[in-house]
């Protein structure tokens, strides 16, 4: 694989190719780790193959990113690409892993397209995606126009996939800091006088809401554990299907179609076709 030069494409060239093709403005190759960029590149190369409405360009968790890779792998199956995708590595956001995958994708792109130019509405297609356009990596500024300099909002700060963002403490207005240090506001009023007065009813409501919040947190944690448990099993099945000793078995393609199905009807169709195929094979 290395002799064809695919792994000598620089990060700068990869980013320029991605940004030019998809009308993006990403500056780090790690931002491709969610799988959304790969999905749209394939959408540009093979129109109608990728279910773009299932792609989440603003995936925040590994689980969301894995769903993007399911969409990608389902599309790979449709176009006959048998490239093994190590999802576990890619979703971690490590630069080298994602750079190697994008280098492979660039090689595949060139082998199919050559020097042809695509007339592809990248922005319009992203607007059809699950969460809309990618936050913090919008369209490239027009040629000759200086991009406005502004501090990024929290929603625009990119966080490596699979890691939670550091806890942020909201800023405290200066007058509040002054009130905390001197016991009075700039207007000379007591800080205590500005606090809303509470009564017994308010306290009971707060207590009730606090208990409800605790119950919801426990429920959410339980569901998260269950989700991770079943996801790990599905990932084990996927790894088994990719083993050289097993992937040639006639049942494997049907299993992969169920794993990578983007919705329940697609999975059900694969199940029905498997039943029909093996029923005919036994007669």
How confident is the prediction overall: mean pLDDT? Answer: 77
Distance between the termini: 43 Å
Strand percent estimate: under 5%
Task: State the major sheet.
Answer: none
Order of helices and strands: HHHHHHHHHHH
Number of strands: 0
CATH C-level category of the largest domain: Mainly Alpha
Q: Could you tell me the radius of gyration in angstroms? A: 25 Å
Structural domains: how many:
2
CATH architecture classification of the largest domain? Orthogonal Bundle
- The total count of helices amounts to 11
Indicate the low-confidence ranges by residue numbers.
142-196
Within CATH, the superfamily of the largest domain carries the name Calponin-like domain
CATH topology of the largest domain: Actin-binding Protein, T-fimbrin, domain 1
The structural class is: mainly alpha
Structural account:
- The chain has two domains: about 1-140, Actin-binding Protein, T-fimbrin, domain 1, CATH 1.10.418.10; about 205-280, Single alpha-helices involved in coiled-coils or other helix-helix interfaces (Up-down Bundle), CATH 1.20.5.1430.
- With about 280 residues, it is mainly α.
- About 55% of the residues lie in helices and about 0% in strands.
């Amino acid at each position: 694989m290395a002799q064809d030069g695919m792994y000598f494409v620089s990060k700068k060239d990869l980013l320029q190719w991605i940004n030019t093709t998809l009308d993006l403005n990403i500056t780090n190759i790690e931002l491709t780790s969610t799988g959304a960029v790969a999905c749209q590149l394939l959408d540009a190369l093979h129109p109608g193959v990728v279910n773009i409405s299932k792609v989440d360009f603003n995936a925040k968790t590994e689980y969301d990113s894995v769903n993007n890779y399911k969409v990608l792998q389902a599309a790979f199956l449709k176009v006959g690409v048998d490239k093994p995708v190590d999802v576990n590595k890619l979703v971690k956001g490590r630069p080298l892993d994602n750079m190697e995958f994008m280098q492979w994708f660039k090689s595949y792109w060139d082998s199919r397209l050559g020097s042809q130019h695509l007339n592809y509405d990248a922005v319009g297609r992203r607007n059809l995606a699950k969460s809309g356009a990618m936050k913090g990596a919008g369209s490239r500024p027009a040629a000759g126009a200086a991009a406005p300099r502004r501090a990024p909002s929290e929603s625009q700060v990119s966080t490596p996939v699979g890691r939670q963002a550091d806890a942020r403490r909201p800023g405290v207005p200066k007058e509040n800091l002054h009130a905390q240090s001197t016991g009075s506001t700039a207007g000379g009023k007591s800080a205590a006088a500005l606090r809303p007065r509470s009564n017994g009813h308010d306290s009971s409501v707060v207590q009730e809401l606090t208990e409800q919040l605790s119950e919801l947190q426990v429920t959410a944690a339980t569901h998260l554990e269950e989700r991770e448990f079943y996801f790990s099993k599905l990932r084990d099945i996927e790894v088994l299907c990719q083993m050289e000793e097993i992937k040639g078995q006639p049942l494997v393609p049907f299993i992969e179609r169920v794993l990578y199905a983007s919705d329940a009807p697609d999975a059900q169709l694969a199940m029905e076709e498997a039943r029909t195929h093996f029923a005919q094979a036994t007669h």
